[in-house]
Amino acid sequence: MINGTILQAFHWYLPDDGKLWNQLKGETAKLADMGITALWLPPAGKGTEGSRSIGYDSYDIYDLGEFDQKGSVRTKYGTKKELIAAIKSIQQAGIKVYVDVVLNHMGGAGEKEKVMVRRVNPDNRNEFTSDPFEIEAYTKFTFPGRKGKYSKFIWDYHCFSGVDYAANLDETAIFSIVNNPYGEGWEEVVDDEKGNYDYLMYCDIEFRNPAVREELKRWGKWLYDTLHYDGFRLDAVKHISPKFFNEWLDAMRNEINPELFAVGEYWSPGNLPLLLKYIEATGGRMSLFDACLQNNFHAASRAGREYDLYTIFHDTLVSARPDLTVTVVANHDTQPLQALEAPVDPWFKPIAYALILLREQGYPCIFYPDLYSGYYTDKGQDGQDHEIFMPQVNKLDLLIRARKQFAYGEQKDYLDHGSCIGWTRAGDAEHEGCAVLISNDEHGFKNMAMGERYAGNQFTDFLQNHTEIVTLDENGKGNFQVSPGSVSVWIKKT
Predict the structure, then answer these.
(1) Which of 57, 235, 290, 432 is catalytic?
(2) Measured between alpha carbons, how far is 281 from 404 in angstroms, rounded to an integer?
């Protein structure tokens, strides 16, 4: 069985040209050959910004680029027809498809309703700063462009627990809906940041409403019948009651496919106990991205030789729950100028990718610009325009191939030095193994055991960062080397 590797097949600043679905269709054979086994696609539904929307400003989850809504038929990534064709091609190449599911909020309603609300302290969502009063809020979604096709469900204020805009007052704030028959205040979530972090943005979906839950189950089944996906990336799960996802995922797996994969975005870098608490609350129904490890990569890249590499996996999800961890070096939220900005400096990225691709633990995810590069401009927190270039990660394609070809079998760790760490993979009946050595400082070396199976064999650096040949002794041990601030992947010479 080939090791699994996900590609996040987009980033925040892709051009608004409607070409992504077709581009991915054309890349499938190349990606499969390289070792990519799953694609995480961006949100496919129509957002509030129409063809300019990244997809996280969810408007109509049934509109996959089919209806003239929000100023366009297509989404940023293409049309529904192109999406279906791309997925078919991707799956025919042996690559799974994970769809991005955005269910926390909705925006862009076409009609206002009179709603009783209370103002909320944004820094303590449990503190109400006003008595109940009436506002006009955009809370009614009728989707006139779709005209009831696929679903006749009408979203109104009973479907939401809070809003961020009072139209009659022209006031932006957080308003908790009072005239809600399904519960006062916010829903119970795991995260207690800001007192209660149920509310994030736009119209916050009220999952205590049984009609809402049933509609989202219907949509999940419709989406499967339409796209035949293999799994989900679940957006903003820290803001959603785990009770909902427990019910929803059980329904999807019981009625669609018991093997559906799910990974949740619970972004809490440096807070492993909170990630573990969410895994417990969801009964292991979904994996989580390892925000803690990504934060360690960010810190290590900035600290350089001062960072103790043997601590790189300390307090990470992949160390605590490797069976439920998706490991990342970067994503669309951590890239420069985004909300959770925590970029990993280019010199360290090959090291970081080796740490997630070539070890036994975790399910690695590659970021699109790291494989293809990226360029964009946007305003920073200083209000100034910034020009950002994200180069291709040096030899990332080879690291992905190394995972596909050599990262198998027993793992022996040599995580015993501040600036030089390594490990070996013994291989299995179908694959030769490898030895990996990493340095964040000077030239490094380490005597590591590959096993008696490799006694007397010569090893070369698959990445060609080192030109020497290492000959293993009668016990299958060798003195492996690595260049300063680099990584080497040593494989049996053929």
Answers:
(1) 235
(2) 34
CA 220, 225, 229, 230 dihedral sign is positive
Please pick, among 198, 230, 265, 461, the residue that the annotation labels catalytic. 265
| Residue 416 is among the residues annotated as catalytic for this protein | no
Which of 209, 139, 201 has the alpha carbon at shortest distance from 174?
Answer: 201
| CA nearest neighbour of 434 among 396, 487, 392, 397 | 487
**230: closest CA among 40, 436, 461, 465?**
40
| CA 194 from centroid of its chain's CA atoms | 23
Report field, pTM of the whole predicted structure over 0.70: yes
Report the candidate in 438, 431, 432 with the shortest Cα–Cα distance to residue 414: 438
Question: Beta strand 487-492 with 203-205: parallel, antiparallel or unpaired?
Answer: unpaired
Per the annotation, the verdict on 215 as an active-site residue is no
Q: Are strands 38-40 and 6-8 parallel, antiparallel or unpaired?
A: parallel
DSSP state of 304: G
The rounded distance, in Å, linking the Cα atoms of 11 and 95 is 20
Structure tokens at 32: 């499969």
Residue 303 corresponds to which amino acid?
A: A
CB neighbour burial string for 134-173, b if at least 16 within 10 angstroms, e if fewer = ebebbbbbbbebbeeebeebebebbbbbbbbbbeeeeeeb
pLDDT tens for residues 173-212? 999 999 778 888 899 999 999 999 999 999 999 999 999 9
Query: 23-65 pLDDT, tens per residue?
Result: 999 999 999 999 999 999 999 999 999 999 999 999 999 999 9
Q: What are 471's strand-pairing partners?
A: 458
pLDDT score at 29: 96
List, for residues 106-156, the tens digit of each pLDDT value. Answer: 999 999 999 999 999 999 999 999 999 999 999 999 999 999 999 999 999
Give 250-301 pLDDT, tens digit per residue: 999 999 999 999 999 999 999 999 999 999 999 999 999 999 999 999 999 9
Is residue 459 within a helix (H) or strand (E), and if so which, with residue range? strand 458-461
Q: Where are the alpha helices (DSSP H) in 377-493?
A: 396-406
